[in-house]
TrEMBL record, chains A, B:
It is found in: Cytoplasm. It comes from Paenimyroides tangerinum. It comes from the Bacteria. SUPFAM superfamilies: Class II aaRS and biotin synthetases (SSF55681), Nucleic acid-binding proteins (SSF50249). This is Asparagine--tRNA ligase.
Amino acid sequence: MKHIKVNDLLNGSNLLQEVTAKGWVRSFRNNQFIALNDGSTINNIQCVVDLDKFPADLLKKVTTGSAIAVKGTLVESQGAGQKFEIQVNNLEVLGESDPEKYPIQPKKHSLEFLRENAHLRVRTNAFGAIMRVRSVLSFAVHKYFQENGFYYVNTPIITGSDAEGAGEMFQVTSFPLDGSAPKNEDGTINYKEDFFGKQTNLTVSGQLEAETYAMALGQVYTFGPTFRAENSNTSRHLAEFWMIEPEVAFNDLDANMDLAEDFIKSVIKYTLEKCEDDLNFLDQRLKDEEKNKPQAERSEMSLIEKLNFVLENNFKRVSYTEAIDILKASKPNKNKKFQYLIDEWGADLQSEHERFLVEKHFKCPVILFDYPAKIKAFYMRLNEDGKTVRAMDILFPGIGEIVGGSQREERYDVLVEKMKALDISEEELWWYLDTRKFGSAVHSGFGLGFERLVLFVTGMTNIRDVIPFPRTPQNAEF
Amino acid sequence: MKHIKVNDLLNGSNLLQEVTAKGWVRSFRNNQFIALNDGSTINNIQCVVDLDKFPADLLKKVTTGSAIAVKGTLVESQGAGQKFEIQVNNLEVLGESDPEKYPIQPKKHSLEFLRENAHLRVRTNAFGAIMRVRSVLSFAVHKYFQENGFYYVNTPIITGSDAEGAGEMFQVTSFPLDGSAPKNEDGTINYKEDFFGKQTNLTVSGQLEAETYAMALGQVYTFGPTFRAENSNTSRHLAEFWMIEPEVAFNDLDANMDLAEDFIKSVIKYTLEKCEDDLNFLDQRLKDEEKNKPQAERSEMSLIEKLNFVLENNFKRVSYTEAIDILKASKPNKNKKFQYLIDEWGADLQSEHERFLVEKHFKCPVILFDYPAKIKAFYMRLNEDGKTVRAMDILFPGIGEIVGGSQREERYDVLVEKMKALDISEEELWWYLDTRKFGSAVHSGFGLGFERLVLFVTGMTNIRDVIPFPRTPQNAEF
């Protein structure tokens, strides 16, 4: 008899029928009530066993974490907390779980402890909920773009070019590291003999390749892993993370902001609809967490209120120049409470400034645009003022920067001049420059760090808790 | 005025209205008919310009590959080949394309030439079609799993473990390669000082990690990049490719075969429905290709017939032992036409044998199962006969192996014994073994090389032509 998923059992359509369920024991209360979970939902199905009907040594094996199969009748539950339960006629222990050794007990474990058991933490309510929400959010991303005429592009992971002009990349090689790799006459490594015939790294962004596709298919997006070899051990950074990068021909920066805002709202809306139980659990989890905080540090809104707030309000669009004026005149700047004081136009904004703007001043998601050219990447379109570029960052409460995007410099001459000034090799990016040589057009795009979105939607605070197996400095376990 | 996508213009809903279109010129015939494409569809919109209305030096810039914007009235076309066209009132050249230099001319280019211009090849009809089909197939994959209660899991790309026990991996490091990397006293590399504190590689499979998630969420799948550092320059291998790996708790091998067959049929069906124009083009392309072949080498079926054939017929399920008997008795074996003759049970099947079974003997997709344990991976479940494992491979005509899967060995003791025999470190895979220690259960899964599926659906023959920027030995351009 095929088993029925807990999620389907709980909707009651098999009421009074003989059913089979399989899953893992969350708890076994009074030698009578088994809370069975199979991952299809955060909710357990209660399986009621009659103590006298089963041998004691079988029941002894029904411990937290064990895998079991039960057969029985689905009935309406008399107890509180569940509508339906299974009156068990048949019980089989598929895989035992020694309670002395099983790390995940029915009690509160610290997030740190669970990170060390990343292969088991998804068996807890919180991580089951987080990972289901993550999955639904992923699908929402694909659904949004596919239904709006975008094509998914798999840009390369191993790359010979360095999109951002930044140096923080992991090297990929088939060479040994002990010094025996082939060398040129001048003593440098002879990469011609390495697997790809050149030095290669893990990608930091698929944007440049995506641009070449946007200039043919019109609207494209990437959704894949990207990498940073930055030695930053913070709650907001991962060495390996998933990024979403749409790129649209003929979109200017305004259209780009419209797209980003509509996209974020759509995927949150879809997830709110699809993950009600999981989000209610995470909402309550956050409320419980907050109880331990001093009143002043508690959020004004619950998790679900915060998500609805984002849906219902326009993101505030503010130019960099306006933002600098606000920051200059702000209390923490005047009282020297900022670590980095803002005294002039051109300063790079730090996390403390972004948080002030979003959490104290505007109290809503903020889109900053038209940044100084000097603090932004070479491919961003220069404004007529000659000193700002058509860049935008979206800042979220509690998260900081969640999106970074721009209108791209479509003018060949301006782009080449910029690359020269920054010492970026034209020879290496010949193919990127081709897009400006042949049928160039206005186009725009952005990058959204997927884990930051999952952080926001789940209300978690450490990015290591929203990706199954986090990669960070000194950690590549599992 | 916002521009309308070509795909939407061609459905005629804006008939007799003033419209704006933007895109790239495919051809400009008789100084009068511009074929404009914007990537939203393989079809062009014809834009009719009145020679006398526009300055000659403007029209001169309307060349293949240039980006233009046109305004005009959408009318029914008098000419053959299209239902609607734009009578152009306003023409703007957004980005020129020097016809002397633009590599993609309106003529047939070789696939080799186009590979060298992978940043521009998607501007051709064939590659536009392939990449749109690839995108729709990707979405079909997500849609199938999400609608069937699977959760998407992002397993790590950078890994400290070696899932298959195979050695062909790319190393990932922050160390220099010139011999100056920190060393231990015994002269070996001191990986403790490398970024992750251990030696790390690019993943060859997310299966083992996915198994840990299946044992909590029940039904999961991965869809991400995987890597092989194999120096094989063939039309079927890539160093970087995308793999789909579902993993299902409580599924045995039969259920696994059912899932694989249903999955493949579903995604092909969805793509046939969504990509009619692109697949018709690719169908015709293949017919044209075949005309150059001798009669005997031509396919019996067209591309679309082949896709429908897969939908309408059951995959033939054949045990390895039966397959060996068929091969032993086959003509090419008796006539010594096989390069590797089959003389006894236990032989590993080569591509020539798989092709014989699929293309000559059964003439349909074939699922081979119950392979000798010796030629399969350590994690596959041992049958009661003690010599075969619950493995399955799905073989497709023209493609060969498209799926490899198995029921996993769920018995802790048997698994440990197998690992010992193969010298696979228990210490390294402690977390994998935990799934057999705590709540173990029957479970199964498979891996499907996404590019091989795209090959099959598009009718292309070289795997480098179905991924945007292929990575192969000596090639990581773009």
